[in-house]
Amino acid sequence: ACCQLEHRGEAAYFGMFAVRPGLQGGGLGKLIIAEAERTARAGWGVAEMHMTVISVRDDLIAWYERRGYRRTGQLTPFPYGDER
Q1: Phi/psi at 36 (nearest 5 deg)?
Q2: Domain extents for the chain?
């Protein structure tokens, strides 16, 4: 499992989150996001976590919503062809 966590001024950014399929459903994702939230609060003193989630992943969006996250309504096109 892995994630990206960045301090971005008044907020943290959580991204590139993945849990190996065979390990999904066992609570590892909950532990990782909880630790990211703890780091953002205690380490950086921020109260907001921002992220981008692919809009067609309704199951993933629901997972975040069950953890207290909410949709902002901000939509960004998927970066097809991004050469990063």
Answers
A1: -60, -45
A2: 2-66
Helix (H, G, I), strand (E, B) or coil at 15: strand
For 20-33, the pLDDT digits (tens) are: 999 999 999 999 99
The residue among 81, 82, 60 whose CA lies nearest residue 71 is: 60
Query: pLDDT, tens digit, for every residue of 31-71?
Result: 999 999 999 999 999 999 999 998 888 999 999 999 999 99
The answer to whether residues 48 and 10 touch, using CB atoms and an 8 Å cutoff, is: yes
Domain at 2-66, CATH homologous superfamily: Gcn5-related N-acetyltransferase (GNAT) (3.40.630.30)
SS3 81: coil
